[in-house]
Structures are given as C-alpha cells and as structure tokens.
From TrEMBL:
<keyword id="KW-0472">Membrane</keyword>
<dbReference type="InterPro" id="IPR008698">
    <property type="entry name" value="NDUB7"/>
</dbReference>
<dbReference type="GO" id="GO:0005743">
    <property type="term" value="C:mitochondrial inner membrane"/>
</dbReference>
<keyword id="KW-1015">Disulfide bond</keyword>
<keyword id="KW-0679">Respiratory chain</keyword>
<dbReference type="Pfam" id="PF05676">
    <property type="entry name" value="NDUF_B7"/>
</dbReference>
<keyword id="KW-0496">Mitochondrion</keyword>
<keyword id="KW-0249">Electron transport</keyword>
<protein>
    <recommendedName>
        <fullName>NADH dehydrogenase [ubiquinone] 1 beta subcomplex subunit 7</fullName>
    </recommendedName>
</protein>
<keyword id="KW-0999">Mitochondrion inner membrane</keyword>
<comment type="similarity">
    <text>Belongs to the complex I NDUFB7 subunit family.</text>
</comment>
<keyword id="KW-0813">Transport</keyword>
<dbReference type="GO" id="GO:0005758">
    <property type="term" value="C:mitochondrial intermembrane space"/>
</dbReference>
<comment type="function">
    <text>Accessory subunit of the mitochondrial membrane respiratory chain NADH dehydrogenase (Complex I), that is believed not to be involved in catalysis. Complex I functions in the transfer of electrons from NADH to the respiratory chain. The immediate electron acceptor for the enzyme is believed to be ubiquinone.</text>
</comment>
Length: 82
C-alpha cells in the first residue's frame, strides 16, 4: 500500500531504488534521484526535493522515537511493583 510519501514496491523496483532506501519517504527519494542525475549532482540544485526528503526522514525518526519511548514507558509501568 503506497501513501503520499511511500512508493509501491513495483515503482521502487522499476526506478532501481536500493532496498536499504525503501522506507517511509521512498516516494520523495525517486524525484530527488532523478533531479540529481539530470543536474549532474550539483549541490545547489534540487534543494527543494532534498529538503522535502530530509524533512520526511526527520519526521519519521521523531515518530519512531515517540513510539519507542511509549513502549519503554509501558514496560516500566508493567514492571513497577503495585
């Protein structure tokens, strides 16, 4: 199932995205890689695409850390003597 930031597996395979990069932000990586190839990897090009991809990565990291903190809190609450 593909969301606005997650591409489908067939699309990722077609665009030859490495498996390690197939995460929650994969749909943003495809246009970024296309732009990078078209602009010969010039660092001042593709800034909007790069910023959108990096923000997605950061937001995903924050989401995962919140889930982890919640799990740790639940485990601590369950282990605490009543």
């Amino acid at each position: 199932m593909a969301t606005s930031t997650t591409a489908s597996q067939t699309e990722l395979k077609q665009k030859q995205v490495p498996i390690a990069w197939r995460d929650q932000c994969s749909a943003l990586l495809i246009p970024l890689n296309i732009c990078r190839k078209d602009k010969m990897y010039l660092p001042w090009e593709c800034e909007n695409e790069r910023h959108a991809y990096e923000k997605c990565q950061y937001d995903d990291y924050l989401r995962r850390m919140k889930v982890l903190a919640k799990q740790k809190q639940q485990e601590a609450d369950a282990a605490a003597p009543a």
